[in-house]
Amino acid sequence: MLTIKSKTFKSICLLLSCSIILASCYSTKYVSLQDDYNAKLNGKSYADIIVLLGPPDRTTPDGKNGEILIYEVKSQQGYSASNSIDLTESKKQTCIFVDENKICYNVTTDDKKEEMYYDKPKTIASLLLFGVLGLVIILTTAD
Fold first, then answer.
1. What are the pLDDT digits (tens) for 44-54?
2. Which CATH number describes the domain made up of 27-117?
3. CATH 3.30.1450 in the chain, residues?
4. What is the C-alpha to C-alpha distance for residues 77 and 141, in angstroms, rounded to an integer?
5. β-strand partners of 98
6. In angstroms, rounded to a whole number, what is the distance separating the alpha carbons of residues 25 and 28?
7. Strand-pair category, 58-61 with 104-109
8. Cβ–Cβ < 8 Å for 4, 141
9. What SS3 class is residue 113?
10. pTM of the predicted model, to two decimals?
């Protein structure tokens, strides 16, 4: 059987194992901001919305004697491949619906936020991996 007696090796293996477990417990997902926007803006007046967000990029009738305030944010992402730059343009749009009394009654958006969440299956897999690595370390460093 292979035996390794180095304390440095044990420490490195233990540190690496702990890092894997901590890194794999959480994942990232993207969550719509629509509920946040509705909670913040529903019931607000047209004037309050303009104070909060500035003038809309454009407006259009909502078909119910009100109007839709449209806010757009354009962005470009680029990456270099084979000495050329490829640009991808994306547009986030937020539509604020105001009624005939100029009061917001709905908001739609494709804007998202990044959110960390606990990923139970990954954590279980990491704990199993940590157990196996710990067992290997014990067996290979035993005297």
1. 999 999 999 99
2. 3.30.1450
3. 27-117
4. 49
5. 67, 104
6. 11
7. unpaired
8. yes
9. strand
10. 0.57
